[in-house]
Amino acid sequence: MNIQQMMLLILTAALSAALLYWLHKSKKIDKWLAISMFIALQLVGNQVAHSDYLSAGPLTLQQQIGASLDRLPVMVTLKEKDPATRQRLENAVLAAMAQGMSKYQALELVQPEIAEAIGKRLPFAPDAQINQYMAVTLLQLNELQDKGGKLCFQFLFPHSAGAIDATKYNSASVLMQRLETDNRLVAASYQQPQTNSEQDLQQASAQMQHIALQLARKYGDDLKMLTPPQRSDVDHQQVCRIVSDLYQRVMALPAAQSAALLRIMLRPS
Known about the structure:
It is a single chain. This protein is an all-alpha fold. Helix 1 packs antiparallel against helix 2 (31-49) and helix 5 runs parallel beside helix 12. It has helices spanning 3-25, 31-49, 52-55, 61-69, 73-81, 83-98, 103-109, 111-119, 127-146, 149-156, 158-161, 172-191, 198-219, 236-251, 255-265. Helix content is 73%, strand content 0%.
């Protein structure tokens, strides 16, 4: 029993005795009922004092970081399926805090690394999960475009343009879909991994060429802004329109074909 538990038992006993003594002296209850109530209160206090909540003691810094990361469903999945990656992310948070960052700042700092860990599972995601991943991404893009081209551009190219905190700009419903979709994709990529066959690759290449021709006819020289997109003279809003249009055309394909193409397009470089 620790000090916190002992103090709780002493305090419970003292308050219980004082209250029941007053009730008995005021003739609100008789002596035997007061004794019975005192015993019952001590049993309840003893149960609470020995509960896990009070026995656990304060969490270490690493346990606090782990608990914070566990709020993201995908991090719980990674802890089970890829503990090395999960541990690496925890260590990154601890290292950032050792350099003087707050826990919140450190957790924000590793968001791109979490996204990268999710991205590495995209080439192994089943059709349904990778298509849903892109459907939610398009919802995010649409909301960010409504708030200005720069936000959308940063969302698409975080490494070159600077990452954004999506929780400040996307709606709660879309963010919830993002969390659920990312977790389902990562889990499915381990439980039911699916990759492209040689036939998938050939068909996807032909479809990409067809979509590229469609975009060239629509946007002309503006397509040059995509290579490389980090140039300072690009029109952020126009780049977002083109990328959004590209993904919408991919999603218009039959589900199996769009999934195969997305596995290629979203493969980490």
